[in-house]
Specification:
This protein has about 725 residues and is an alpha+beta fold. Helix content is about 35%, strand content about 25%. The strands form 5 sheets. It has a 5-stranded antiparallel sheet with strand order 2-1-5-4-3, sandwiched between helices. A 5-stranded antiparallel sheet has the order 7-6-10-9-8, sandwiched between helices. It has a 5-stranded antiparallel sheet with strand order 11-20-19-16-17, covered by helices on one side. The termini are far apart.
């Protein structure tokens, strides 16, 4: 081929021309002998010597693998070796090394040289330094990956915000940690500081940094100042130990800080020492247990609420993972800082809302009476705040034992759902109570209330219905009532429903003259229902239609006791109330019914909403005994013990309302107690120096029990086993 192109040159001259041409090129060329053992180098050009720094004497007779080193891609080197074994051409880009150890990116091409018979005799290798090209490409790749990471980081922060929108979820913080572990770091965990660090899955809204601690948390850690005082008492130097975690919690240093898991940070009584010990145990199961972790403060508005601990990702943990280094990469650090700040603000807001919620709830409950048992009457009362408001408003009821055989019942509604409405309701309730004890007629009471309210200048309009029931010597009851702009009570008698619409008048404070009252004789078996508008008002129907719906529900009643009637009315009308609901059901018992035993159509379920206070435990016991007798369920004594323990736990460890529900399952009594603390109940054996811990053991002996998260806390249930314990000889009165 060459001679045909240059017929005027002899072979020797052609060889010299080719040699000079290969020497003149700036591409490094190397020729190896394919027939000799080890395929040694037999010729290199000047560009090869200049590129590698080797002399000809140093490379002749050696294999080209002398250019490979620690960073040479093994897979690419294997591709070259495979091509040589298969006697075919190949091209790869890999890292080679100069004689002085300097690395450079080289594009290497190899081609087989064959004789006239087609036998392989030599290999020709050409390499070109492409370090600048690779550097530009990697820079572009890094820019693209950095942009992707920034976008991914923004996506993570957005998903964190979405998760924080539902802080009632008991595992919200665990879900956020899982999100970080999936996209940002190798491991993450949240620890809140409630007089001592503790790992958390969610936000315990019962903890408000007032000294109350979670019962499962670690022992309280000392602050830096407390550590210094303890060292001083022991005769040691007064200088505080360098606990980086405690300094974060105290706000004396800004985060993040690196925590060495091999170091002793002052023992388990310090925040750093306890955290090191916990993380050593927790992280020991990771494929690559870390030596250090990154600790970031979970910052509230005025103080640090806890810490976020993160283990940096290793190279290969994620497709775009950086090389492992001390601390986290910049993009991940930004995501962690934003996450910690958002969690801190969300935790503080949630706890602030919980405190305000409990304050409003306590105010509302303080203004509502405890359940009152009226001799000779079956009375059931219920109050439920609207779920869309701040659990405080102007609805109220009152049951007043005025004297022997005389009881007053009032149901009222002050406009509004705020503290001002509750305050106005409290003033009005106090005035009504005071006058009801002095004046026997509801009309006279409302007249006096009109005069006084006009002077008090209560800023909200209010409606009220006031009744007085008097027990006659023949066992009948006389009802006297007066209304001030309030919905009429409902009387149910012999399957007929009638509104007590007489004795009506304007709203409280607007009466110009004497109020009038009306009377009604109540017979055995009669039902009287007093209520506020929240029971019947809906956006999609008129008030008249709501009153009609109440009448229809009363016609479908199958329960015979006041609690059963109230439960059926709530189920039919108030599953999703749009306003506060206050209901009082009064029933005149029938002697032959054995204190209101249930009929065949009784739905066999009861519900009470009780305040989180010790007095509610006795009310719950009384309710269970009365229900067991009404439904003729055995094991009332066991049920009484079970509900006592469940209510005691809810009152002791919970807050706000406690919901008690009873169901007849056909195999026994099912008891449900719901409170606002999401922490699960735990049966323990107790230990020296610890009070309590045995209540759930009693429940385990007498019932099957379990628990589940509820919308605002937890629900604990128990199904009481048939028991040989004696039942009460007579129903509670």
């Amino acid at each position: 081929m060459v001679n045909s192109l240059t017929p005027d040159l002899p072979p020797t001259s052609m060889a010299q021309l080719l040699d000079r041409a290969l020497q003149a090129t700036d591409l490094a060329v190397v020729i190896t002998d394919a027939r000799a053992p080890g395929q040694p180098i037999v010729w290199v050009n000047d560009a090869f010597i200049a590129a590698t720094g080797y002399t000809r004497a140093e490379v002749l007779g050696r294999n080209p693998r002398i250019l490979q080193g620690p960073a040479t891609d093994v897979a690419h080197a294997r591709r070259l070796a495979q091509a040589v074994a298969e006697e075919r051409a190949a091209r790869v880009t890999l890292v080679n090394y100069r004689r002085d150890g300097g690395a450079f990116w080289s594009q290497v091409s190899i081609s087989p040289v064959r004789d006239d018979a087609g036998r392989l005799t030599h290999w020709v290798g050409v390499q070109q330094d492409v370090s600048e090209t690779v550097a530009r490409r990697e820079e572009g790749t890094r820019a693209v990956l950095a942009e992707r990471r920034r976008g991914a980081g923004l996506g993570v922060v957005a998903r964190v915000s979405d998760l924080l929108a539902d802080l009632d979820e008991p595992h919200a913080l665990r879900h956020i940690a899982d999100l970080l572990m999936r996209d940002v770091v190798a491991w993450a965990g949240f620890f809140l500081d409630d007089n001592g660090l503790r790992p958390v899955d969610g936000i315990d809204l019962s903890t408000t940094h007032t000294g109350r601690r979670h019962r499962h948390g670690p022992p309280p850690q000392m602050t830096v100042h407390q550590q210094a005082l303890e060292l001083a008492d022991a005769g040691a130097a007064v200088e505080a130990p360098p606990d980086p975690v405690q300094r974060l919690l105290d706000g004396t240093v800004d985060g993040p800080v690196e925590l060495d898991l091999a170091a002793d940070e002052g023992g388990p009584r310090t925040a750093g020492g306890w955290l090191v010990g916990y993380l050593r145990r927790e992280l020991a199961t990771l494929p690559h247990p870390p030596g250090t972790v990154t600790v970031l403060p979970v910052q509230g508005r005025s103080r640090v609420l806890g810490v976020l601990v993160a283990v940096p990702a290793r190279a290969g943990d994620r497709p775009d993972g950086p090389e492992r280094r001390r601390g986290v990469e910049d993009g991940a650090a930004t995501v962690l800082l934003l996450t910690a700040r958002r969690v801190g603000m969300a935790v503080e807001n949630a706890r602030l809302y919980a405190r305000e919620h409990r304050l409003a709830e306590a105010l509302q409950r303080a203004m509502l009476p405890e359940h009152v048992d009226v001799p000779g009457l079956d009375v059931w009362s219920h109050y439920a705040p609207s779920s869309t408001h701040a659990q405080v408003g102007g609805d109220w009821y009152d049951i007043l034992p005025v004297g022997p055989g005389v009881v007053g019942i009032a149901v009222g509604d002050v406009a509004g759902h705020d503290i001002e409405a509750a305050a106005a309701m409290g003033q009005l309730r106090s005035v009504v109570r005071a006058y009801a004890y002095e004046h026997p007629s509801p009309g006279d009471v409302l007249t006096r209330v009109d005069h006084l309210v006009a002077g008090l200048r209560i800023p909200r309009s209010a409606s009220l219905v006031l009744t007085t029931l008097r027990h006659a010597s023949d066992g009948a009851w006389t009802l006297e009532y007066a209304r001030a702009g309030h919905l009429p009570p409902v009387l149910v008698r012999d399957g007929q429903v009638r509104q007590l619409a007489a004795a009506s008048g304007p709203l409280i404070g607007f009466g110009e003259g004497a109020r009038t009252a009306a009377t009604e004789e109540l017979r055995a078996g009669d039902l009287l229902v007093l209520y506020t508008g929240g029971l019947i008002e809906r956006r999609d129907r008129s008030l008249r239609d709501g009153v009609g719906a109440l009448a229809d529900a009363c016609l479908r009643l199958t329960a015979h006791d006041a609690a059963g009637v109230g439960e059926q009315l709530l189920a039919a009308l108030a599953d999703a109330p749009e306003d506060d609901v206050a209901v009082v059901v009064v029933r005149v018992p029938v002697d032959r019914e054995a204190h209101g035993s249930a009929g065949a159509g009784d739905p066999r379920q009861r519900r009470w909403l009780l305040p989180s206070e010790p007095g509610s435990i006795a009310q719950a016991r009384h309710a269970v005994l009365r229900t067991c007798h009404t439904w003729q369920i055995d094991g009332a004594a066991s049920a009484e013990l079970v509900v006592s323990e469940l209510m005691a736990n809810a009152v002791l460890h919970g807050w706000g309302h406690v919901a008690l529900r009873l169901y007849d399952t056909g195999e026994g009594l099912r008891i449900e107690v719901e409170d606002a603390n999401p922490a699960p109940p735990v049966a323990t054996d107790g230990h020296s120096g610890k009070i309590g811990g045995f209540g759930m053991q009693i429940v385990e002996r007498l019932a099957e029990w379990g628990w589940r998260p509820s919308g605002s806390g937890k629900l604990v249930w128990a199904r009481v086993r048939p028991s040989a314990l004696p039942a009460p000889s007579r129903p509670p009165t």
